[in-house]
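Quick one:
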Amino acid sequence: MVQFTLHVPKDRFKSCQSSSGTKYKNVRFYNNEAFRSQRSKKRIIDNKNITEGSAEKSMCGLRKRAVVLPPEPMSSPETSNHFAKPLFSTNLLAAAVTAVVSAGFAIPVHAEEAQVQNAGPALEEVTVTARRREENAQEVPIAIKVMDSEYLQKQNIVELESLATAVPAVTISNTGNTSNAPIVAVRGQRPTDTTLSLDQSIPIYFNEVVMTPSQGTNLAFYDLSNIQILKGPQGTLFGRNTTGGALLITPTAPTMEQEGYLQVKAGNYNLRGIEGAVNLPVNDNLQFRVAGRALKRDGYQEVVADNALKGEDLWDEDSQGLRIGMNWEMGALSNLFTVAYDENDMIARAPVITGYAAVPGTLAEFITLAYGNGVNEAIARQQNRSAHDVEIDLLGEESVENTFVSNITEYDLSDSLTLKNVFGYRKVESSRTLDADGTALPIFSNGLVTPNSATTTNAVGPEFIESEQFSNELQLLGSTDNVEWITGVFWYQMDASQDGLTQLFTGDIPTGFPPPNDIRSVYMYQAIPVGDVNNKAYGIFGEATYHFNEEWAATLGLRQSWDERSVTVRNQKQAGQAPLETDPLECVVTDANGNPAPNCERTETEKFSSPTGRVSVNYTPDDATLIYGSISTGYRSGGFNLRGVDNATLQPFDEETVVTYEIGYKAEFGSIRTALAAYTQKYDDIQKTVALFSSGGFQTSTINAASATIQGFEADVMWAVTNDLVLSLAYAYVDASYDEWIADVLIPGTTTSVAVDASDDDFGFTPKNTATASASYTFPTSPELGEMTLTGSIYWQDEMVNFAIPSQFEVTIADDALRQIAYDSIDVKSYSVSNLRFDWRNMMNSDFDSALTVSNVTDKEYVIGGFNQIDTLSLVESAYGPPRTVVASLQYNF
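Output:
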């Protein structure tokens, strides 16, 4: 019989040594969770297929959260496979209590016979890393949404954008002019642009490494351990640019089990895909895991315009991904190395035109001169057909390649002290062309156009973005009898460039036709933004949790961040209407004195810094309840406008800050798990993108524009009604209002801005109410038939607006009818989306699983983003979510 010695520093042990002398590290034991209920026992039974030969390794665990299970005495050959039987036929509860009472001592644990019968319905324990260490989600004083691999499969969450209809208070929107740079928003915290020089509010971490810029982050999800969404500022442990929270993606790491899977899938829109992973343990010290996927699909949209593109598919997919993980352990040292490559080539989703206000003084006057009522006629046609049937005159060809490397090294200095280093590297290369006006008229396109319909080899575009980042974080984690703490230093650098050309307008107006009198500057083509971005960041941080007793604990964290931002602009425009080859681009960049910049290049550098922190007090009246209150702060770095051309538009914008006051309640009542949170956020120096007039004409620019208060409430309830039926309900209420926002609004046809009080405007892309509900039922079947589960879910969200400053229409649009068109075009109606999935696992007692998934069952057409150009072209476009999809999959597990 194998026995284990547990080395326990208070309420968790760091190592596990068998009677054979082999020592396993990184084993976690949780005093309040490991054996306190049937819930934990069910999780271990479900997730571990332990055989006698692998019992010692499985019980001690390698690089993953595990609970050491003492083996049963082997009384006869018939019990030799006892680890494959119910693991809780021993008195584990007594063993756990003994280990805790003897905290700090090495004690032998022996199993004794006992019987646990008639286990009631149970929910699996959820493990998170929100505080940079593995913990039970119900014991962490932070609002968290966790989705493990099974949840992702059942909800058909296959890429980042799929989360748009999965989590209340979280929106994943699209600007409408790219499919590979989604904007993540949590609790109203959302950036208003995706240029390289503007940081996101909700950073995405893959395997503990931050991913910047947003381009290329709409990753396909495969072979993942879990996704965690942390709500509220995470300024201490995750640092800069986490004013709204953080999104953590964790891939499945190599383990000691020799196993894997191979999955094939097919669906409507001619979808066909393959995915698989294999885990290869070389020995006790070295393990590999290789995972990959490939998927092709026809487009969700089709061109119906009566032109050469008629019948072309848009918004298709041709993506591949490969990931290799290597885990190596030697004594107190462990190292997890991950390298991944993903690429996606597609004809991008086209924006759907939803509004045209024809505002006098904008480029709409040129549109009217060239096409008369053509845009209004295009809108009328669009309103009478599906949003997935569109008219365009340029295919949006989009390509993105991601190369990712992470290396996580841990060294146990002692049983209670660990040194950890996280290194990260990411390279992104993307290119795109786009018809940005949503019509078959040559009005506004990005990349690869033929100027003025002339035949020329001087083709324009596409737009290129290249980015390379390095980061490194060194952590020291420790614990004593009453204190758990972490401290560390962080370094980050990103070098990126953007280049391309935009066609602003090309019509049948004769060359040299004078612009309307009230338009001061008209440019037919622009190379904006063109330039380089260099970002550097440094940080030092520490956080400690002190346990006063078994019920009360307090956490204090502090971080100091430093950012250095540099931008080099080389922006150009064409000042006229002649074909590009006869009227070339002109530099519009000026130096600090207002003179043309030498070599059409200007560099600006600025430094920013800010302290951020967190204070929380936690009360646990019993093992199943947590009540907490916290104050946390966040900061999003300032920077420059990559579209800037002169002193006015190259002024740096400052950092924005947020302070959040939150109270929360987490509890479990038998088979019911709840998590409630209420919060108030004070949001200052909000970074907003607005229209300005510069030496280069109309420009959008980021400024510090407003202050706001965001209040909300969130509830998440899960109930295991029976062993076969699980229900869940989640709801979020967000009340976001500006305390003060005096916006400088550019009057069309002039170079003049006027002050507009926008304090009563709604937050863009922030619905007040969102909710999800789901039910999962496992049919009572025999093992010979397999396990059959039916899951249904529904997501609903309130109405919202997709524009930043609706109140500006009162001064920029004099005509009442046109103003009402503008208001109507920015409203996004409420909607609901439902999904169904049927799983058949261990089909006919085999190693095969199958599934049938129907997403967006009712084929609802719903808006997830938009691209607003009322300031310049009087156009409003929307980006819609996917139509109904049906996908069948077959998976072989080995």
